Amino acid sequence: GIAGIILSIGMAVDANVIIFTRIREEIAAGKNVREAIKIGFGKALSAVIDGNITTLIAAAVLYLKGTGTIKGFAITLALGIVLSMFTALVITRFVLMALYGIGFKDAKFYGKQKEAKVKNFCGMKKITYVIAVICICAGFVSMGVHASAGNKALNYSLDFTGGTAMTVNFKDYLEVPGSDEDDLRKLFESEAGTTDIQFQNVSGSPEIVIKTPVLDSEHRAAVKDALMEKYALEQSDITEENISGTISGEMRTNAILSVIIAGIFIMIYIWVRFRDIKFGAGAIIALLHDVLVVLAVYSIARIPVGTTFIACMLTIVGYSINATIVVYDRIRENSHTMLKATTEEIVNTSISQTLSRSINTSLTTLIMVLLIYIMGVTSIKEFALPMMAGIIAGTFSSVFISGTIWAVMKGKKK
To answer: ∠ CA(224), CA(157), CA(248), 5° rounding?
Structure first.
């Protein structure tokens, strides 16, 4: 649910950034403010609608194929998208016209978009593709190293594998993760015979929930005795239960199938809307890059892979496809006006014109996720850290991969 809300806010910010950029462009072109607002909304409409509908397609597929938390993500995301489209296209317009009506008629209140200096993004494609491949390969190498060392390729959390959960009332508050964790961790590693241990404070209580892989009766008894001796606890202060792997094999399969089916439908939609299957193929390649980069972060940083993993991946899929749509919308528009330009010239111009949007949207969303990381509990941090990597990867792919890969497939013809 939190993932769906975050993505909705990110896309709402994006829609407004696109609209404001278009209005500033029209003011720079010499239009008066009233005309600029009207034309700006008209030109931004296709990018906002296409970006949101592609994400709505993903939400619909996830709802139909997903189970449990995936359905929750899909419902929250769909509601957020519908509401953000309404606020961006209706409420924002109303507010701008109201401001104009009460006297904010001078262009200085709205600003002028500086003419974008066209950079040769297509000329940099070899370097950027190499960077992308290195980042992806680093993930596969990391997974291979961990697997060969006898560990799992990814750090699957107890959500996936199941285990034992102990709730311990320590009487005095102990901060975990924090200054009090080391002694507690050493005790568990010694008596439970495992290093796969998760600690979490119970809010407003001295209790701590400690999760480990399934422990046999001998190890459980050893842990309890050590806790009672070291922290002067009673038997009644320690409760335990077995936890099953809540993310079953069927749920994992459905999540993967959902992303694949959503990708196919998104590609078909982009093909129909842009009348060129190369746009759809380019979007999927950019999407694949982002997912694999985030997977690399999970492997290298050994971030636990649980329910937050699925939510993170689905959020990045929605965020990335929206960023790519904005670039493709500008390429489609410039293709009708830059009739004597080559494909690479059109792509370079389009990416340069949307660069400020890409940076502004990414920064606003990145700041929001960074604050969530700083202020959040452990499970939220496990979501926020790879999300930040996904936002950076999504910005990189929308600027350096999506447009240039389309140019490569299109060829150099005018």
So the answer is: 110
* Nearest 10 degrees: Cα torsion 84, 89, 90, 91: 60
Q: Which residues pair with 240 in a beta bridge?
A: 166
What the block records as the tokens of 80 is 């957020």
Residue 212: phi and psi, rounded to 5, are: -140, 165
Instruction: Please state, in angstroms and as integers, the Cα–Cα distance from residue 317 to each residue in 173, 235, 328, 345, 382, following that order.
Output: 40, 48, 17, 28, 18
pLDDT in tens, 158-207: 666 677 888 888 877 777 766 667 778 888 888 887 777 777 777 777 88
Per-residue model confidence as pLDDT tens digits over 280-299? 888 889 989 999 999 999 99
Residue 156 dihedral angles phi and psi, to the nearest 5°: -65, 130
Distance CA 105, CA 33 (A): 6
pLDDT of residue 134: 96
pLDDT-based confidence at residue 405 (cuts at 50, 70, 90): very high
Full DSSP string of 209-266: EEEES---HHHHHHHHHHHHHHHT--GGGEEEEEE--SS-HHHHHHHHHHHHHHHHHH
Q: Tell me the C-alpha distance between 325 and 363, whole Å.
A: 18
Tally the residues of the chain.
414
DSSP collapsed to 3 states, 111-132: CCCCCCCCCCCHHHHHHHHHHH
DSSP state of 87: I
What pTM was computed for the model? 0.76
- Residues 22 and 41: beta-carbon distance below 8 Å: yes
Instruction: Return mean pLDDT, the chain.
Output: 83
